[in-house]
Amino acid sequence: MKIILNVVGILAVILGVLGIFLPLLPTTPFLLLASACFVRASPRMHNWLQTNPVFGKYLRNYENGHGIPLRGKIWVLVFMWGSMSYSVWRTDMLWVRLLIVLIGACVTIYLTRFVPTMRIDKK
User: Fold this and answer.
1) CB 45 within 8 A of CB 6
2) Membrane-crossing residues (predicted)?
3) Beta carbons within 8 Å of 40's beta carbon, 6+ residues apart
């Protein structure tokens, strides 16, 4: 089982990194999946994710229940809806347009209602 979890975790990291550069490929869910796999299968890989200089801080905050900073939520929504709007504009199939809007609405609801907004205390 550990081998399967490690393979899934590595694939999720690869897809998550690709998602940084490719529109409509989500980064955060793949990195969260990788973290969940590694926490059960490879403490060394989980530690690598947690201490990664690019996304480690965000994963630690999310996993510890602190949530996502408001600025991060705003950026996610702006870029997500921007890329989804482009995709809706470029396709002629109504069912694809509706599916994209439905997915965007579900992600927006999840992000705004169920993911805590991290408080940043100014000193």
Assistant:
1) yes
2) 7-24, 95-115
3) 2, 5
Q: What residues contact 13, with CB distance under 8 A and at least 6 apart?
A: 30, 31, 34, 49
Q: How far is CA 118 from CA 37, 66, 122, in A?
A: 24, 5, 13
Mean pLDDT, all residues of the chain: 88
Helix-, strand-, coil-residue percentages of the chain, each rounded to 5: 75, 5, 20
Provide the total of helices (H) and of strands (E) in the chain, helices listed first. 6, 2
Report DSSP letters for 46-60, one per residue. Answer: HHHHHH-TTTHHHHH
Helix axes 70-90, 94-109, angle to 10 degrees: 170
Strand residues in the chain grouped as ranges (E): 68-69, 117-118
Summarised one tens digit per residue, pLDDT across range 32-64 is 899 999 999 999 999 999 999 988 888 898 888
Distance CA 53, CA 59 (A): 11
Q: DSSP state, 24?
A: T
- Does pLDDT of 94 surpass 90? yes
